[in-house]
Specification:
The chain folds into 3 domains: 242 residues, no CATH class; 94 residues, no CATH class; 59 residues, Arc Repressor Mutant, subunit A (Orthogonal Bundle), CATH 1.10.10. It contains 16 helices and 15 strands. Strands 4, 5, 6 and 9 form a 4-stranded antiparallel beta sheet that branches. A 4-stranded mixed beta sheet has the order 10-11-12-13, with helices on one face. It has a 3-stranded antiparallel beta sheet with strand order 3-2-14, with no helix packed on it. The chain has 434 residues and is α+β, with helices and mostly antiparallel strands. Helix 15 packs across helix 16. The N and C termini lie far apart (74 Å).
């Protein structure tokens, strides 16, 4: 938690304490929650929306009010029949880090980008896997509207049950519209907690929201105050300077380095959101032929983020299941850059070596997959395709130009993909015209 605070530039106070928050809800049957009220572990800080594709939005910094530690509550489960409420106490009492932002987020998209960026940061720091599906990271949003120019915020509504980033964005957008409609109709907004119905994509009322005084905070009597560090001598729980020096490269720093290092035209966000993907990409680039690295890097990125990730998703693989090594993948890219194999052959090879990691050079040689340069072979293949597909030829002459790609495909199949499709297209056109 202190690592997170240091990463986002929070102020870490010398002393912190725990407080007892009293409330009577069934998710904590003891009637109170251990939390932090006025002396949290981290104060302030900022996190930019660095995952945005929009450069201006990516620079926007969301101010953080505080990061504190408290115990988690039980999970309330409401069956569809609405005749009962079930309670799962598995997580009740477990320590939970809560981060609270200042009211500077204006749209659902901004909230989603902030939450996604925080997830990447938590993973980078190694403090949590932050998997929302497993409940390792949860989001609750507070929405307050006010007329333009007015300083004071309107009545606050909290929305819970948000178990995905998509739900965060949709719930905020819905709630903004709901409150806008109420205010324009002259109605008042009730301070309450609402749930999110992911099927109907609407919010619904759960309970009236309490004010801070309703919780009757007071210092937790069973836990002593925390002496975090000393400015004068080496005392306290943490050496903040040492912790700062040991912070890893942070996600926004990675993004900037990747863009600068590889003159990047692709989506660098993909690489900073998936550590294994990034490591594979960077390892591959170092193993490309230095003479052709500049042209090979974008090719490596494209095949990695489209073909390899496509196979990974389609076959439900993990990175541990993928046997292809960066070195062997670099060999494939080198062959593409040097125009020794076609893109069709490269894609077919990936399907094979992703499970075996058999040497690319060896497969190309033994199966004869190198790009065919002999014009006589290309011409004879084209002539054979034309003879065997007279109807497609007639269709092409009648204006159905898409049949040309069908003919190219037939030729590529006969040549096992070991030809340049553009060259085949040119030869077919010439033969048809002549």
């Amino acid at each position: 938690m202190i690592k997170v605070g240091l990463a986002v530039g929070s102020q870490i106070p010398e002393f912190s304490k725990f407080d007892r928050k009293n409330y009577f809800y069934p998710d904590l049957p003891k009637g109170y929650q251990i939390s932090q009220y006025d002396e949290p572990l981290c104060k302030g800080g900022k996190l930019s929306l660095y995952l945005s594709e929009n450069d201006e939005l990516a620079k926007k910094e969301i101010e953080i009010e505080r990061i504190h530690l408290e115990e988690d509550t039980g999970k309330l489960i409401h069956p569809e029949d609405k005749k009962s409420t079930l309670i799962d106490f598995n997580r009740a009492g477990v320590p939970l880090m809560e981060l609270v932002t200042e009211p500077v987020i204006h749209t659902g998209k901004e909230a989603r980008l902030f939450a996604q960026g925080l997830q990447v940061l938590l993973k980078t720091l190694g403090v949590s896997e932050a998997d929302m599906e497993k409940g390792q990271m949860r989001c609750e949003v507070n929405i307050s509207l006010k007329p333009q120019g007015q300083k004071e915020l309107g009545t606050k509504v909290e929305v819970k049950n948000l178990n995905s980033f998509r739900a965060v964005e949709r719930a905020i957008d819905y709630e903004i519209q709901r409150q806008t409609d109420l205010l324009e109709a002259g109605d008042k907004i009730m301070q309450e907690t609402r749930g999110w119905d992911s099927i109907r994509e609407i919010t619904y009322s759960q309970r009236v929201k309490e004010e801070a005084q309703d919780y009757r905070y007071f210092p937790e009597p069973d836990l002593p105050p925390l002496h975090l560090y000393s400015k004068i001598k080496e005392e306290g729980l943490f050496d903040l300077e040492q912790m700062k020096s040991q912070l890893p490269e942070l996600p926004w720093q990675k993004k900037e380095r990747i863009i600068k290092s590889y003159t990047f035209s692709g989506d660098a966000n993909l690489l900073i959101q998936d550590e294994k993907l990034r490591d594979f990409f960077e390892d591959t680039v170092t193993k490309l032929d230095p003479e052709y690295r500049k042209s090979g890097t974008p090719l490596a990125y494209n095949y990695l983020t489209t073909d390899i990730l496509g196979i990974k998703e389609k076959e439900n693989l993990t990175w541990n299941n993928i046997k292809l090594s960066p070195q062997n993948f670099a060999k494939l890219i080198n062959n593409l850059v040097l125009d020794k194999i076609s893109s069709r052959v490269a894609k077919d090879l990936l399907l094979e070596i992703i499970h075996s990691n058999q040497d690319v050079e060896e497969i190309i040689q033994t199966k004869g997959l190198g790009k065919i340069q002999d014009s006589n072979i290309l011409i004879s293949t084209v002539e054979e395709v034309i003879i065997n597909n007279s109807k497609a030829i007639e269709d092409y002459k009648k204006g159905k130009l898409n049949t040309l790609q069908f003919l190219v495909g037939q030729a590529m199949t006969k040549l096992k993909g070991a030809a340049d499709p553009k060259e085949l297209e040119k030869l077919i056109r010439e033969k048809i015209i002549n």
